[in-house]
Structures are given as C-alpha cells and as structure tokens.
Amino acid sequence: MFKIIKWLVLAIVILGLAATAVIYGVLSISLPALDGNGRSNHVSQAVKISRDQLGQAVISAENRLDAAYGLGFAHGQDRFFQMDLLRRNAAGELSELFGKAALGLDKKMRFHQLRKRSAAIVEQLPQADQALLTSYAAGVNEGLAQVGFSSFEYLLTGAEKKPWRSEDSLLVIYSMYLDLQTATFERDQALIQIADIYGPEMVSFLTQPSQYQAALDGSTLAPYNLTIPEFPKQTLQALLRIDANQERGSNNWAVTGQLTTTGAGMLSDDMHLSMAVPVIWYRAQLNYAMSGKVSQVTGVSLPGAPAIVVGTNNNIAWGFTNGYLDTADWVALTDNSKTWQEVEQIALPDGSIEEYKLTLSEYGPVREINGKPYALSWVGHQPYAVDMDLLKLEQATTVDDALLIASEVGIPVQNLMVVDSQGNAGWKNMGAIPGRIKPSELAVQENDYSTLWQHNEQQRPEVKNPVDGRLWTGNSRVVSALDDQRFGNGGYALGARSSQIRDRLYEKQHFNEANFNQLQHDNQARFLQPWHSLLLQQLNRNSSANQQYIKELDNWQGCACATSIGYTLVRRYRDEVINSVFTAMQANLQAQGGSLNYVKRDLEPAIWQLIEQQPDSWLNPQFADWDAQLTDSFSQVVSNLSKEFGSNLKGWQWGTVNELVIEHPFAQQIPQLSKLLNMPTAPGFGDSYMPAVQGRSFGASQRFIAQPGHLENAIMAIPGGQSGHPLSPFYRAGFDDYVAAKPTPLLPQTLMHEITILPANEL
Q1: How far apart are CA 183 and CA 178, in angstroms?
Q2: How far apart are CA 736 and CA 742, in angstroms?
Q3: Burial annotation 420-431 (CB, 10 A radius, 16+ → b, else e)
Q4: Angle, nearest 10°, between helix axes 64-91 and 114-124?
Q5: Which ranges of the sequence are coiled-coil (predicted)?
Q6: Which of 88, 267, 67 is nearest to 165 (CA)?
Q7: CB–CB of 314/296 below 8 Å?
Q8: What's the per-residue H, E or C state across 346-402?
Q9: What are phi and psi of 531, to 5 degrees?
Q10: pLDDT tens per residue, range 512-541
Q11: Integer distance in angstroms from the first to the last C-alpha of the chain?
C-alpha cells in the first residue's frame, strides 16, 4: 500500500512538473526578440531599437516619422495586449474579448461613440500628423508580427489580434479622458440629483470651499456662511458604505534656478492612477534629427500613442497633474427638444451582435437623471478634444515655448508644470477647455446653452517665475478666485495635498533631486490630525474599556506609516462617521440610480459643521444623540477590521490594511497564475490627502524629477517593468527600487540589446 501511495505521489509530482513545463514552453515561444536585424517598407532610413537593463527602449532614427515607427515597434513587442484593452475599453468593444460579462461596460462606453469620433478626427488632422500615426501603427503591427506567436492572453481568450490603426491611437488618448474626466460629469449628475431631492441649498452646503486652499496666487473662495439645511425626517435603515471614487490626479511642483545649485529649474511630477500589470507607462528615449538639429527626448510614453507624455529634452522638462476644470454640462431637455436614436452594434465572441440603442441630441448623448432627460455636453465629444500637438513639446527649448503650445494641445486638460535649463519655471492649463464662459455644476437650460462649446478656449491663466521661485499643483484649485468663476470646479481635490506640498517647499531655500524625492514620499498625516483628536475624545469617555485603542492612538506616529495601527483607526473612523451621517442621503440617491461617491471628497467642511453643531434633523434615528452616533462609528471600525484582518491588533497595521497589490487583469480570474503574473505585494506606505499617495492598487504611477541640462541625477521610478510578458527579464524590472524609494535613473544605462530595421529597398 505504501508503495502504491509513493508511486501516486510521484506521478502527481511528475504531472505537475510536466504541466508547468508546458505552460512555460507555450509562454516562452511568445517572447519577443531583443536582438537582430529586419527590413520594412515603412522606414526611410535605418532605425535602431535598443534596450538597457530595465528594458527602457532607446529609439535611434534619422527623422521623427522613423522614430514613431521605432517606438511603435517596441510598444507592439512589449505591450500589445495592454494597448488592445485600452482601445477596446474606450470604444466599447471589450465584449468581443470577454463575452456578455463586459456588455454593461461596453454600453457605458458606447454612450460616447468614441470609435466614430476617433475615425472622424484622424481624417481632419494635418497630413504630417496623419503620416506620423500611420508610421507608428506600422511599427506596432510589425513589432507584433516579429513576436510570431500569440501571447497567453489571446490563447486564453481565444480572441483574434486585430491590426493597429491610426484611429486606435486616438482611442488610447480617449481612454485617458474616460479615466480623468468621468468624475466631472458623474459628480454633476449627483449634484443635480441632490438639488432635485433636497434643493440647491443642500448642494451649496455639501460643496462649500474647504480650509485647504492652495491656489498659486494665494486667493481663497468665500466661506460658507449660511445655516445648515434641515434634513428631511429619516427612517431606520441599514448603514451604507460610501466609497469615494479614486481621485485620478497627481502631484507636481517646480522651483526656479534661484533655488538650485545648478541655476536650472527643477521639476517633480508623479501621476496618480490605478495600478495593474503591466503598469500604464513605458520608459522610452527618442533620438532623431529635425530641422538639422539632433533631438533627444527621454521620459515615459503611453503604449498606443507615439509621444513622450512626461519627460525632458534636456532644454525643458515637463509634467502633468489632472486639471479638474469644469469641462462638462448636463443640458435639461423638454418634450420639445429634438432627439433621435442611433443603434450601436456590439460584437460578441461567437459572432453574434448585441444592439445598444442610444438617444442623441444636438448637445450630446442623452441620459435620464431622476426620470428626466438630460444631454451631456462634454469636451471629450468635441472635435478639438484630441490631436497630436503634444509632440511639439519635444522641440520646445524654453518655458515660454511650452506655455505658448499649451492652448493648442488636444488632451484632457492638465496642469502643465514646466522648467528649463535657463532657470525658468511655469504653470498653465494644457489641453481642451470649452469656450463657454459660464460653467455650471447643476443643469443648464437649453436657452442658456452656448455655441462657444464648439471652440477651444485660447485665453487661459498662466504663472511664470513667481517672486519666491516656487510652483505647485495637486488637483485642487490652482487658478485665482476670479478665474474660478470662469473655468469652474470639475471635481477639484480637497486641497490637503497641495497645501502640504506648498508648505514643504517653503521649509527650504535650496533644493536638489534628493530633496524632491523625499517630498514625493512625504506621508505625514496633517489632514487627519483633527480626526485623531476627535477619536481620542470619544474613546476617553470610556478610557478603561478603550485602553488598547487609546494606546495605539497615542503612538500613531502622525503618519501613514506601515507599522502604525493608530493611523488605521483614525482613517477608518473618518470613513465610518461619514457613512453614518450621510447614509440616508446615500440611500435616497441610490434609489434614483445615483451615489455620493463622486461628492465624498467635497464633504469634509460639511461633516465638521455637523459634528460641531449637531443638528437634530441630521441625527441618525437609531441613536439617542450625536455622541452615541460617533461612538457607534468606532464600533463599526473595530467590527470591520476584525472581520477583515482578525482580532489581533497587529494585523491592523496600515502596511497590512493598505498593502500594495498590483495585479494582472487575468490573475483574479485564474488565481493559479497570480504568482507568475502579479507584482510582489509590499507594505502600504502613504494614503490620500498627503504627497505620498498610495492605495491598495492605486498611487504614483511614476515618480519623475529632473533639472534640464543636468540629467545625470534625474529620476524616473515606475512600479513595474517594461514588458507585458511574464517570462521577460523586464517584467518586474524597477519594481523593487520603486517600493524602496530608491532613485531609479531617468537616463538609459548600459545598452544590452539592439534591433536594427533597414528600409526594405536598401541594398
């Protein structure tokens, strides 16, 4: 019997090893070649695609068209499936890959008809831009063809790889619109619903300006000075969780040469986005000639697009944070409004078609809000939303050049922060801004709709070389109080991050790259200090029963540090108080298909007024008084943490609760592949409302620091590797240094691989 068991175990082991060998064998044949020679009809002269130990692609070409081909070739080799998901997501075509499970998301995206818009815009682009997109697409397709065998994602889905087209690059840019600006019109919808249910006074109360304001000119918005609105009589109901939508944003700041040893301006930029495998950005350096001059541009590209998005040409360095200007209006329609229907056809894997009927109007697509029709007028639907003018930054030599370009660029509106080697620093909103001059967070009547929507705003504020030499943005209001009336609030961040960055910049008189790197990792919990005091006050009402929690709060370290249990308690307490106070409102909104999720970031001033004044109408009816309600919120914290992480408080450390988990899209569906596909987990460091932004799968998607003209110490840290192939040596390259806050060099290091593509007709 023992021998039989022994042989069975041995057979299972052998079968397991054989299965592993088969998996690795199938994966290995889809690895791209990193060395060799090839020919193409799509290059005019030799193009070299080299890679260093991080896998950074170094493209060497004689002109910009061939450089676009080379970048496309590298993207096609390393990231095609990611690019495919980006274009399909924006176009509403994921169902063709994943079946009916993706229909809901596809219909949500078809509401915007971005495939049609992309195809139309390509036809309107200048010939030079069309040629660039054509060259890039050719590179993508030939880089993909070089791989020869389908990647595992296509083998698992059984899907067909479709060639890359010029319009697909515009869809990739539209994917950023959806990521960065959806919150703007969803927030407006929630405010319309709140006004409809509770009146406009409630909207004013909930969206009042906070104490955390960090506009560059130091201006503040008038504080809310009205009484707290009465809340309608509440009924008993279950506590609802209000999850704030992830704040697609970023930090950037800059100093002029008067504050650096070199005399050059210095820039910091870290863009906050969802994190997955592969990471969204792709390291690249483009080397090419233009107008008789050699250009070298180093930074990160977005796979699917032929540009360096954030980086430096050694004359200037630039970075972005999401602008959150008001770029959308809902237009209230009537029975007399002209509307019509179009049918979008969504393909499924079996070849069948799902039809989605879409109602349109002259203002935009139509959605019902609280049972009434509204049309969405959004800058993303305008012809000027997308273009190739971002590439002009590659040739800019001064801050003035970059600021002049800003008004023409077709991207989601961003806070452009730019410095140059001469010591200048500047800020300006770059991207598409509608020309209408009266933005509104609530519904617009048809009679008030402006035809200026069809025009991109050219007149926009800017700041260059402030007297104190410091500039900063963090997704909160940057413009003056007066300009705020013109450009509107599209879902600004609260301002706590921006304020903390500003204050840190004024703590020093000289800066280098190490100082900026330290500031990028600043996780001091300034914003939560009042909540820490409130929680201690509540727990001290029964100090003997709460002794262990009080001890952790006394030792909370005042930061989102990995070992802090007290930080976890304070952070969760704030969320539970908001859940408890606003549960009734959330329930009413959910009954109308809405949510407070997109408004939660606005609620800080309102929740503190409610806590301090304790109006009876806002008291949850299951509690006798506000103290009981606040005490119960902490009981909810303890209960939820115990369920999630066990009753041992050591398991409640912030590093565990906010553990960094960066996963491949297929890992959740196929857990057996998780170790192969995912990045290693890491203790959580940072949180919202502080410079070091980090959630479980969200945070700084790159960290960039540079002084143009002095790039030897420039930094570009990314939470993942270059390649999307799990067997590639570059799959996780750079991740460990990112987690450890080590300053990964921006510039390519020793080149290890090289592919040369020659013109097909060259002897």
Answers
A1: 9
A2: 9
A3: bbbbbbbbbbbb
A4: 160
A5: none
A6: 88
A7: yes
A8: EECCCCCEEEEEEEEECCCEEEEECCEEEEEEEHHHCHHHCCCHHHHHHHCCCHHHH
A9: -70, -35
A10: 999 999 999 999 999 999 999 999 999 999
A11: 72
Question: What is the C-alpha separation between 640 and 568, in angstroms, rounded?
Answer: 12
- How is residue 241 written in tokens? 């969780």
Tell me: the pLDDT tens digits for 86-143?
Answer: 999 999 999 999 999 999 999 999 999 999 999 999 999 999 999 999 999 999 999 9
Report the C-alpha gap between 201 and 208 in whole angstroms.
11
**Tokens representing residue 282 in the block:** 């792709």
Report the distance separating Cα 596 and Cα 244, nearest Å: 8
The helix or strand, by DSSP H or E, that contains position 645, with its residue range, turns out to be helix 626-645
Most distant CA atoms of the chain, gap in Å: 89
Cβ neighbourhood burial of 548 (10 Å; 0-12, 13-18, 19+): exposed
Report the chain's C-alpha Rg in angstroms.
27
**DSSP, res 682:** B
This prediction has a pTM of 0.95
Q: Please give the Cα distance from 648 to 654 (Å, whole number).
A: 14
pLDDT, one tens digit per residue, over 29-67 is: 889 999 999 999 999 999 999 999 999 999 999 999 999
Distance CA 246, CA 526 (A): 20
| Cα–Cα dist 57/185, whole Å | 37
Angle between helices 626-645 and 565-591 (to 10 degrees): 110
Tokens of 605: 């001033």
Alpha-carbon separation of residue 720 from 81, 282, 661 (angstroms): 16, 10, 12
Q: If we measure between CA atoms, which residue out of 740, 598, 622 comes closest to residue 682?
A: 740
Contact 262, 709 (CB under 8 A): yes
The tokens describing 571, both together, are 């952070």
